[in-house]
Amino acid sequence: MNLVTGNSKIGLIVFLLIIVGLISVWMNWEVVKASMDWSKHSQSSPLPFYLASLPIYFYIDLSYLLIIIVLGVLTYLSLKGSK
User: Fold this and answer.
1) Rounded to two decimals, what is the model's pTM?
2) Rounded CA gap, 51 and 60, in Å?
3) Is there a domain that residue 68 lies in?
4) Residue 65, in any domain of the structure
5) Distance between CA atoms of residues 22 and 41, nearest Å
6) Position 7 in a domain
7) Who contacts 66 (Cβ-Cβ below 8 Å, separation ≥6)?
8) Cβ(21)–Cβ(71) under 8 Å?
9) Nearest CA to 35 among 54, 13, 1, 60?
């Protein structure tokens, strides 16, 4: 018996998308909050993003990209379900 079928799969996808969206918004807030001081733009990114030494603009762009992808997929799923 397959427990993950139909609506359960969509529910799991929506749940994971919401989690990724919340993490993206939180990441955006942490990066933008630290970048309000122009002297910090040349520094590496704030905690907890010290996993790689990438410029702060990378994390800003990554967070916006993830937010747009999550919104796009959630919009697609909601429009697909309304047909």
Assistant:
1) 0.67
2) 15
3) yes
4) yes
5) 24
6) no
7) 20, 21, 23, 24, 27
8) yes
9) 60
Question: Greatest CA separation found in the chain?
Answer: 59
Range of the domain at 51: 18-35+44-81
Higher pLDDT, 21 or 39: 21
Q: Amino acid identity, residue 42?
A: S
Q: Tell me the C-alpha distance between 80 and 57, whole Å.
A: 34
* Chain mean pLDDT for the chain: 76
Q: Is residue 9 part of a domain?
A: no
Per-residue H/E/C for the chain: CCCCCCHHHHHHHHHHHHHHHHHHHHHHHHHHHHCCCHHHCCCCCCCCCCCCCCCHHHHHHHHHHHHHHHHHHHHHHHHHHCC
Is the C-alpha dihedral spanning 15, 75, 64, 34 positive or negative? negative
Tally of structural domains, the chain: 1
